[in-house]
## 1
Amino acid sequence: MPLPICRFCREGDRFGREGDRFGHESDRFGRESDRFGREGDRFRHEEDRFRREGDRFRREGDRFRREGDRFRREGDRFRHEEDRFSFPCSLFPVPCSLNLESSRGN
């Protein structure tokens, strides 16, 4: 016949099992915390990458705006040159190029 287990031993065993259960829970929470930490790091890296790409796109946009401004200025300059050199053909004794081209066709 087995010896009866005293109340204190039973309580000790129960507390031991509870301790093991809490230890396992603690380990699980630790693993989840590590996983969330890694995911947080990954999101931070992605956020940094998106920020760098955004900065690069902004710089390219600024460069395209500057080039557009430069082309607009060149277009304005060419229009001014064209306006400066386009006089009515009646001011010149020699016919203008349009008249020359039309006279060649006849």
## 2
Amino acid sequence: IFNTAAQNPALNKLPYFEECIKLSGATSEDLTPKPEKMTHESKCFFFCAMKKEGAIDATGMYKPKEIFRILKLYHGIEVPADQIKTISTCITALGKVSHLSAVMDPTKIPGFEECLESSGTTLEAISKRPVTLDHNVYCFFKCAHEKKGSLDADGNVVLDKLLDVANEHNLSADQRKTLTVCLEAVGKISACEDVEKITKCLMPMKS
């Protein structure tokens, strides 16, 4: 699908193309056909595009019918009728797309190497989707929040830093308000596991 999308000469004519390019930081090189080597920026671009098209709704859920519509409309791919149910079930089983896990490249976190070493986790562990949240992984993300300045020296949430997520990932006003209320209730982060409080605010959770 990515290969076909990237080859589509009309890709840059999409009404939201420039906006998604700006939000993702993607270049023409990022959007060239190389599905086995999708860059962080190309993933961000297509994440943005899928949200604009309604293939990912406001709650972060994939919408199979919209994905099929996009494939047919823009890429000339019509999913065989006998495969629709199977593919829809598979897509639905993916659950919600987290704003964090869908776009975050762990290696681009400030102090990445230092946090990896101090936490005792591995790149493989923090790159898995979904991430298995064990003690070491929590410690990695606690360290990352400290390096980014979203946690101060006393373990207090720096709200403005975390609300940058809203600006970077184009959250709606309602989503931003919900995020603000959630983060204001987090309290002090002391133990590594306390980071889960932030994680639950940043990542849409399955009900």
## 3
Amino acid sequence: MVKGEDGWCEVFEFLEEGVLLLDQEGRISRCNPAFASYVGKDRGTIAGRTCPELGSGWASLEQVISRGHGAPSHRRTLELELAGRPFRIQAVPLTSPDKARAHFLCLLTHLGPPIRLQEELRKWLEHAGEAVVVIQEGRLRFANPPALEATGYREEEVLHRPFTDFLHPEDRGKAADAYRRRLQGEKIPPYPLRLVRKDGSLLWVQTRGAVISWEERPATLNFLLDITALRRSQEELERTAEALRESQQRLEALVETAPSLIVLTDPEGRIVLFNRACEELSGYRSEEVVGKTIPEVFLPPQWVPAVQERFADPFNPLLRLPHRNPWITKGGQERLIEWRCAPLFFPGHSRPGILGTGIDISEQQQLETELRHRTQIQDAIVALLRLSLEDLGEEELWGRVLDLLFSLPWLSLESRGCLFVAQGQTLVMAAQRNLSPAIQRSCARVPFGRCLCGRAASTRQVQFSSNLDQRHEVRYEGIHPHGHYCVPVVSGERLWGVLNLYLPAGHPRRSTEEDFLRAVTHLLAGIWDRLQAQSQVRLSQARYQALVEQSPDAIYLVDPRSKRLLEANPAFCQMTGYSPEEVTSLTVHDLIAAEREDIDERFAAILSGRILSP
């Protein structure tokens, strides 16, 4: 063993115990790498220091050595804590007893579990593919590279900060409670949390953890699994379903609150929709007539043949022409109804049902002009409903809505106008009819609050003008006097756009026109809701189909009545050996080795709503 003049041996450099050499003045002359690691300082900065300068725990060693001046040959032993970890120090004098002050060789031994275990754990966690953090006393003590990369922080930005600083405010209480209960020994199942990235965006994670010892103190080891994409898909499906429900509710509300009678029959002639106006006129509740036919409930016997003949061919162009027939109310009164009807196709049927809107013309006190007005409103409603059901692009659909409005003679409109869609705080022209290039350029984009259309968007109130006034801020060369109805298209709290119609100069404001235009924009909002919901549904269906196609599990679809397979995914074909074309020729009886009666019983149970185990 090579030993220097000061008592230092080269072998000390390779020991796991810390070794320290003090000179006669009590200053550190040498230390090995293990000692420097234990005290957390560089060897170059340790040399020349006294023991108290290393920290409060080391002052006691200085006192022990000082008390031993009278007997320097005696070994001194001391136990102390460094950074919360227990150590034993043995101080051995290296010089003869007659010297006033001796050299001391100190051996530092860790009394807890081997520190190398924690170092190995840290190395393993740093190379783990999953995001991992260590929390101790409510603060972050360690975050591996995947965790830092996922949140966008640097290591020095997160260490020693409360872990709740990085959580969504709504999740902090839940996470703090789970952390406390886990340290108390309670088993906490995995649960979702929202982390706030450095850029402010949210990261959904599922966290699971365990209690460990970190630097000889209790801590929790937490694994973070990114579930952001899954949560977004779930939220998207929920939003789509909610949008569909809201759209359906709006359409139902429109039908229920319409002043006209609205009846829908299925391809077999059975009533499937009977609105409130029909209930009020007839005295029947909807549930009393749904599933029955109109001749069965409402028609006088002598009218049955004529009505049945009229509706025998739903494709007959005469069906769309207005016609009159009486209804017998529940109280026995006869009311004369004028109907407007149109075919409406049902999924899976080649023969359409019939959508009818009607008005009670029994009271002839109404003026003929008012009657024409109401029937034209019905025509417009039916036409808009039918337009909403046609497979049209949005620009063509909005253009045809404008054409329909301009075709109504009782609306005193100029045959020009446009429909804006809201994008942020700006209206963007989506469709127009008969607007000059100058108007199209000037009004291509209109900020909220600017001009009449912008005011309609910002206030969500109808803006009317009988002529050019100070609100008409958009001006252009060659502008002529005119008025406007600017009607916002609103669905709940959402502004979809603004309907802008031109009026002759001096046109008075009429409540009948304004009420009708509000009804039109309510219907447009419902159409907009449905278009968006359909787009979301198509996207969800595509994702669902992709999941089925890519699933490693065998999946097949069966007709519950015939027990015939309708389709199957690639995993099913690979498992069974059948090609996709061959699958549709199979029945469940061909695949399952069971009695036919047993299979039929299981399908009957499934159709009744029971969930069967494999």
